[in-house]
């Protein structure tokens, strides 16, 4: 399992023993709304998304996860409450699942793992803060340009309709924005 940190051979073995590898086909759910999330998932191959569906059937994408990213409903894992999110694969994917108990064990017994998780949590907070700021203060065009700047690797892997959902705009608005950018 990749990630930041200098792992000893023994530590890497503990991490490998804690993980269960799972293949997730394109459009297959890793977890669904109403399920209690039990695992943290580390993406080893592919691309997944976390999203909710409102009462009108409109999807609202919270995040994407590609290789070497973590995905899961942390709130559901920590509280034991049913998830309000769906997580599914955008392309054929593979994940390493780690249960909450094993995850907590690794955090307490493998310093490099704990350091990696703390670093990821700090970066996640900054990304969330930036996303909130972007969402409430930028135009649709600026949101898209910021997305391309921050996540250039996703633009070709994720359908435009999903990018629009992530940005909180309609697919039609994104199409119009993309045409305006090309005209310049």
Please describe what this structure looks like.
It is a single chain. This protein is an alpha+beta fold and 184 residues long. It has 7 helices and 8 strands; from the N terminus they run H-E-E-E-E-E-E-H-E-E-H-H-H-H-H. It has a 4-stranded antiparallel beta sheet with strand order 1-8-3-6. Strands 2-7-4-5 form a 4-stranded antiparallel beta sheet. The longest helix has 27 residues, at 111-137.
Query: Strand fraction band?
Result: 15-25%
Radius of gyration (CA) equals 18 Å
Low-confidence stretches: none
Write down how many β-strands occur, each being a DSSP E stretch of 2 or more residues.
Answer: 8
The 3D shape can be described as globular
**Secondary-structure content class:** alpha+beta
Helix content: 40-55%
Oligomer: single chain
Name the strands of the widest sheet in spatial order: 1-8-3-6
Order of helices and strands: HEEEEEEHEEHHHHH
Span between termini:
43 Å
The helix count comes to 7
Mean pLDDT: 94
Largest sheet features? 4 strands, antiparallel
Keywords:
184 residues; alpha+beta; 4-stranded antiparallel sheet; 7 helices; 8 strands; 23% strand; globular
In short:
The chain has 184 residues and is of the alpha+beta class. It has helices at residues 9-18, 74-79, 100-109, 111-137, 140-150, 160-167, 171-183; strands spanning 20-24, 29-31, 39-45, 47-53, 59-66, 70-71, 86-89, 93-99.
List the helices and strands and how they pair.
Blueprint: H1 9-18, E1 20-24, E2 29-31, E3 39-45, E4 47-53, E5 59-66, E6 70-71, H2 74-79, E7 86-89, E8 93-99, H3 100-109, H4 111-137, H5 140-150, H6 160-167, H7 171-183
Antiparallel strand pairs: 1-8, 2-7, 3-6, 3-8, 4-5, 4-7
Helix pairs in contact: 3-4, 6-7
């Amino acid at each position: 399992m990749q990630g930041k940190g200098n792992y000893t051979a023994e530590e890497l073995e503990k991490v490998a023993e804690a993980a269960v590898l799972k293949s997730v086909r394109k459009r297959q759910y890793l977890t669904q709304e109403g399920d209690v999330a039990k695992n943290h998932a580390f993406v080893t191959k592919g691309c997944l998304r976390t999203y909710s569906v409102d009462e009108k059937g409109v999807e609202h994408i919270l995040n994407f996860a590609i290789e070497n990213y973590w995905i899961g409903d942390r709130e559901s894992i920590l509280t034991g409450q049913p998830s309000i999110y769906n997580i599914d694969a955008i392309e054929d994917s593979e994940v390493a699942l780690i249960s909450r108990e094993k995850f907590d064990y690794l955090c307490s017994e493998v310093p490099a793992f704990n350091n990696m998780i703390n670093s990821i949590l700090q970066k996640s907070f900054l990304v969330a803060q930036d996303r909130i700021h972007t969402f409430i203060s930028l135009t649709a065009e600026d949101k898209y340009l910021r997305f391309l700047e921050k996540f250039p690797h996703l633009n070709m892997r994720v359908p435009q309709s999903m990018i629009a959902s992530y940005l909180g705009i309609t697919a039609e608005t994104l199409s119009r924005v993309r045409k305006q950018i090309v005209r310049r």
